[in-house]
Specification:
The protein is mainly β and about 190 residues long. It is about 5% helix and about 45% strand. It has one helix and 14 strands; from the N terminus they run βββββββββββαβββ. Strand 4 and strand 5 form a beta hairpin.
Length: about 190
């Protein structure tokens, strides 16, 4: 099932969020890209992509944006502060919010899942890189199935076009039954 994209629009020193936006595909575009190798920061693997007028850094842990910088070097993404909130841009899947007593029942069996699901605490793989796009993938595994009894692929796709960063979520149900889910983002910006 394809879900709507969300786009960040950068103008000067402000970032605007517009949603929904028609989904963008990771295709070939003639944009000069600076490829930086994967690096480890505070125990997290970070992928960096510079295209158009933006540079982003994305952690493979949760496929979470760690940085969004404009051509002038201004950091648009909240960098976390333990006094307020350490998050930056966590992705919420397969639920948004919490469950009563962190428990739900599916087909007569009880499952336990923490607030906002497991994606933000899961290790994604970089499944595709192009001149203007990073695509991350989380597939079901033993840990996810202990909380959510479905076979799936969950993709998070970041695409840069000029001064616009778009974020697309794509969920593929590989189960032979209906797979209920919610997906969303919890972004924070510098003002």
């Amino acid at each position: 099932q394809n879900l709507p994209s969300h786009a960040f629009y950068y103008t000067g020193k402000k970032v605007f969020l517009q949603e929904p936006v028609r989904p963008l595909q990771c295709g070939k575009v003639s944009i000069i890209m600076e490829v930086k190798k994967q690096r480890k920061v505070r125990g997290k693997m970070i992928e960096t992509l510079k295209a158009g007028q933006l540079e982003i850094q994305v952690s493979t842990l949760g496929a979470e944006l760690q940085s969004v910088k404009g051509a002038d070097g201004f950091e648009y993404l909240w960098q976390g502060d333990p006094a307020y909130w350490t998050g930056r841009s966590p992705i919420l899947f397969p639920i948004i919010g919490g469950l009563p007593e962190e428990t739900y029942t599916w087909n007569g069996k009880a499952y336990h899942m923490g607030s906002h699901g497991f994606a933000r605490k899961s290790e994604f793989v970089l499944s595709k890189r192009t001149a203007d796009c990073l695509e991350f993938k989380l597939s079901d595994n033993e840990n996810t199935r202990s909380q959510y009894p479905f076979a799936f692929d969950f993709f998070v796709i970041y695409t840069i076009k000029e001064n616009t960063l778009s974020e697309e979520f794509r969920v593929v149900n590989k189960s032979d039954c209906v797979m209920p889910f919610s997906v969303g983002g919890h972004r924070a910006f510098n003002c």
